[in-house]
Each structure stands twice: as structure tokens, then as C-alpha cells.
Amino acid sequence: MLFLGRCNQLLQVPLLQQLTIAATIGFRFYSSDLEFEIKKITKIINDHPFPDQPIHPKLAQIIPSTTISTSFVENVLGHLFASHSNGLKAFEFFKFSLQFSQFCPSSDAFEKTLHILTRMRNFNKAWELIEEIHKTHPSLLTLKSMSIMLSRIAKFQSFEETLEAFQKLEDKLSDHKQFGIDEFNLLLRAFCTQRQMKEAKSVFNKLYSRFSPTTKTMNILLLGFKESGDVTSVELFYHEMIRRGFKPNIVTYNIRIDSYCKRGRFLDGLKLVEEMEQANCLPTLKTLTTLIHGAGIAHNTTYAQQLFDEMPKRNLLPDSGVYNALMNAFIRSRDINSATKLMDEMEANNLLHDNITFHTMFSGLMKSTGIDGVLELYHKMISRNFVPKSETVVMLMKLFCKNHEVDDAMGFWRYLIDKGYCPHSHAVDVLVRSLCSHGRVEEAFECSLQILERGRHLSKTCFRVLERHLEMGNEDKLKKLNKMIKNLHTVIPPSKGHANGISSVI
């Protein structure tokens, strides 16, 4: 009926407008159908019992060959990444797509698959993927894919293993040519983003003569010192940068400003804006966002609002990030009404509420109106089919369970599962513990099954709680969990903190 109504409207406008409107309507219907199909496929992959059943036959059954396209594969992988899917399923889906001759894999699809595998610390499969792509589609091995690999190895493995990975990538990808400054910058960034500044300086001093550092190189190191939270180290390295003959740019100033703001020294950060302008570096949207956030940390909402209001004079158009920064400033000063008005203003300006928006508001509501205010915003978020990120999921789950709103916690769980999302292990732990304490052991057992069936490990904490409640009268259920955990270990070895199964013989 809606479509027919649109068609009737078309007959009442000139031909050129008819064609334009028809194309728009067709695109909307196509986009809507494609989005529905992507979400459906993502949910089926997440729900697939793994590793009990192979996934390729299921993929062949539910995905017609005509559906496989670059955009489709990228979107499914993006949804799998956002939903914290089992990385091996994403890997299998990507390999499945490579079977189709009409499919041309993109660097984006490859990078998402690599990111999912390294996030779950499965470096063997990640190297396997790199080996395969190097043979079949070497052009997909970009600086970004290198960055993903190095940053995850730096986070989860040793300094020596990170250097070995860098050398291995150079041997494999450089076609017998030495890496240049771009690759060297990636290695430095891998250490700096993990705040491993001792290691970063060691690599810099060791390889400085081999490469020719640029201002970007120095900014990466400056960013590392900023992330470590030491303003003095930032300023010392900044002056070292100047002594070495490097000219600071807008990125350099933004890092220094953020360094001061994060430490509550908002006025010192503000003074740097004058220095920037004298150096012909005009403040950007990022600069103003940083300053507004810094004003919030200093509980100076007056200055935060003033900076926000000055943006049009600087020919800057506020985006969601700017609104979130100002919202955070109001929340820090317990001004929940002003923060709420900003949410309305964002809608009026067609700016979407993102995860930071919701997380910031939930944090403020928890401290002001309590559970009632949170529930109101929560239901608003759910009505928009918005799925928050892990940090927000854990925060909400903790709040619901702490306030004995177990029905809301279970409703949230079902919503996430229905959306194809695999909740973070911390959220699972909180929910299972709460359910068991309220005598709802059967539901706790079912939630744990859902996680294991999706190829995700249970934590030791979660399993011990279940073991304690199931070992008296529910031995069969406990044995079933134990069998599934052991089976999962055959394809995804457990890491520290993962459940190993029954601790005592029943």
C-alpha cells in the first residue's frame, strides 16, 4: 500500500521528477532489503553450532551465488566484527566468498577478517590468512593490514615477537625491497598505542639511521607519551622534536592540547591555541572537540558552551563528536537537563546518536535519576534498534542486575542475541551470577549454552558459578556444558581466564 501510494504521487509530478523519485524509492527498497539480508546472514552465522557442525554447507544453503558481491561480504564481515562473533566463523565466511569467480575481494574485507582473528589472539590463523592472500591477491596486503597485525601482536605478545613479526612481514611483502618510513611508522605506532614507550624509544634509536623519520614519525612518538598520561614527557619530547629540526603541524598541537586537557589543565591547553594561530595552524574540528572535552574535565561548562557557540565563527560545523564532548561536560557537572536538550538538538540537526552519546547519557542518568531514568533512555535506544558497544552493554547489564531488574537484564540479553550480537564475557558473567542468585538457574544455563553454541568461551568465573548451582541435582546439564567446553577447546584453545571444564569428578 505504501508503495502504491508513492506511485500515485508520481503521476502528479513532471516526468523528470517522476524518474528521480522512482529511482530514490527503488534504492530505498533495495537498500532496506539488502540490509535485512545482511543482518539475517550475520545472525545465522553467529547462531550456527560451532564446531559441532561444519559451516560451509550452511553458507552454501543460505547464500545464493548471485548475492556474493564486494559490498555484501564487507557488510557481513563488518556486522560479525561489531557483534563479537567467533573469529573462525568470519574466517570461514571470507574463505567461502573466495570460491565465487565473480567475487573480487577488497582490502576492506580482508582487513576486517584479519582484525577479527587477531582480536581473538588466533595469530596462527591470521598468518595463514596472510599467506593465502599473498599468493592469490597480494595487492590486498596494505599498510592498514600490517598495522592491524603488528598492533595486536604488540598488545598480546612480547617485544621480541613483535620485531620478529615486522621482519617476517618485510621478508614476505616487500618483494626483496627494504621497508620504508611508512612501515617503520607502523611499528612505532604498534608500541605507542599500547603505551610501551620504553620499547618504542628502543626501536626508534635502533632503527633511526636506517629510516628517515618525518614529522609524522615524531607525532606518533609524541602521541605515545600523551597516551601514557605524562605531560612532562610530552613537552620534553616536543622540544626534542624541535631541536631535531622537525616543524610542528596541526597534529602536533592537537596532541599537546589533548595532553593538557586530559590532565585537567584546560587553560594551558587553551593557551596553545594562540601559539597554533601564530604558527599559521588554524584550529580544526578536532581541536575544538578536544578543548570542549577538556573544559568538561575541568568542570568549566561555561567555557565549554562558549567554545561550542564560537564554532560557526570559525567556519566549523559541529558533528556528533562535538555534541558528545559538550554533553560529557554537562554530565560531569551533574547538569542532566542540558545534556538531554543536546540529544534533542542533535536530532533536530539530523545527527545520529552514536554509542558515545548513549554511554555518556547512561552514565549521567545513573548518577542523577537512577534506574528509572536509565530505563526510559534504554527503551528509547531499543525502539530504534540500536545495538550498543561492549562497554555500554556491560554497564547496563551491571546496573540492571545490581538493582534486581533481572527481567530487564534478560530482555536485554534476548534483544542482543536476536540482533546476532554475542555479548562480552563480562556481561555474561554478571547476568549468570544474578540469575543464579535469584534461583533462575535454568535461564543461566540456557544463556551459557547460547554462548558456547556460538563458538565463544565461557569464563572461569561464569562456569564456577554454574558448576556450584548445577552439581546438586542437575548433573546432566553440567556434563553437557563440560562436553561443549572440551569440544570448543579442540578448535579454539582457551586463553587465560577461560573455563577448562569440570573441576571435580561428579
Automatic annotation (TrEMBL):
Q: Does the keyword Repeat apply?
A: yes
The UniProt keywords, alphabetically, are: Repeat
Q: Where are the PPR repeats?
A: 214-248, 249-283, 319-353, 354-388, 389-423
Record's keyword annotation contains Ubl conjugation: no
| Cross-referenced Pfam families | PPR, PPR_2
Task: Enumerate the InterPro entries for this protein.
Answer: PPR-containing_protein, PPR_rpt, TPR-like_helical_dom_sf
Gene3D superfamilies annotated for this entry? Answer: Tetratricopeptide repeat domain (1.25.40.10)
Read off the PANTHER family from this record: MEMBRANE-ASSOCIATED SALT-INDUCIBLE PROTEIN-LIKE, PENTACOTRIPEPTIDE-REPEAT REGION OF PRORP DOMAIN-CONTAINING PROTEIN
Q: Which family does it belong to?
A: Belongs to the PPR family. P subfamily.
Name assigned to this protein: Pentacotripeptide-repeat region of PRORP domain-containing protein
